[in-house]
Each structure stands twice: as C-alpha cells, then as structure tokens.
Amino acid sequence: VQLQASGGGLVQAGGSLRLSCVASGYAFSSYSMGWFRQAPEKEREFVAAASYWAGSTYYADFVKGRFTISRDNAKNTVYLQMNSLKPEDTAIYYCAAAFGSSGAYDYWGQGTLVTVSS
Fold first, then answer.
1. Are 69 and 35 in contact, with CB atoms under 8 Å apart?
2. What is the pLDDT of residue 72?
3. Strand partners, 20
4. What is the side-by-side order of every strand in the sheet holding 2-6?
5. pLDDT in tens, the chain (118 residues)
C-alpha cells in the first residue's frame, strides 16, 4: 500500500495550491479518503474527507469555503484544492485512507509541506 502526496510548496497569503494524493496497492474505491495536517509543535488535525462513494464530503470549520476535497476513483487519486490560503495553514499535509465509512484511517501518506507567507 502506498499513498504518495504532492503539490505542496511556498505560496503567499491569499494564494492557492492543489494537493494530490495517488494511491496504490489497495481497492481505492472502497476507502474513504481524508486530508490531515500537522503544524510545527501542534497536534495533527483533520482537514477534509471524501466518502468512498464520493457522495459526501466533510470539512473542518477552519477550511470551510476555502478548501475543496475531490476524488477520481478512475485515477486512484484524491485532491485538495486550497484557496485563500492563510499563514496559519502552514503545515505538513497528509492524505489517509479509511475502509468504507469506518472513520479509522489505516493507511497514511508521507506528507507534503505547505508554507504560506504573510
């Protein structure tokens, strides 16, 4: 099983980035996908999730209206479109997979660093 996240980088406040996470080694369409983040010296926190059937999406309050999660089951890929970025969005962003709607994330990617400058 492998989750390969990419798309991070340095962006100015107000800018946008699109993260991608390509999955392999398991039945992607049977797993809900989530994005989490961890800022320096802070706990990891939930950002967004897309159900395995792509019918439902969930967001942390602090990203609602700014971030959009989507998935392409044909490409085994989940995306996180991040707009109106703020310096407090600076963190390592991780993608993760949870079987069905279990909410238990079994597989994790290596993370991609997002840095938002003020």
1. yes
2. 93
3. 6, 79
4. 2-6, 17-24, 77-82, 67-72
5. 899 999 999 999 999 999 999 999 989 999 999 999 999 999 999 999 999 876 799 999 999 999 999 999 999 999 999 999 999 999 999 999 999 888 899 999 999 999 999 9
57 C-beta neighbours (distance < 10 Å), count: 14
Question: What is the model's pLDDT at position 100?
Answer: 86
One-character DSSP codes across the chain = -EEEEE--EEEETT--EEEEEEEESS-GGGEEEEEEEE-TTS--EEEEEE-TTSS-EEE-GGGTTTEEEEEETTTTEEEEEE-S--GGG-EEEEEEEEEBT---EEEE---EEEEEE-
CA 27 to chain centre: 18
Neighbours of 106 (CB within 10 A): 12
6 contacts 112 by C-beta, under 8 angstroms: yes
Look up residue 90 and give its amino acid. Answer: T
Q: What is the token pair recorded at 107? A: 């597989």
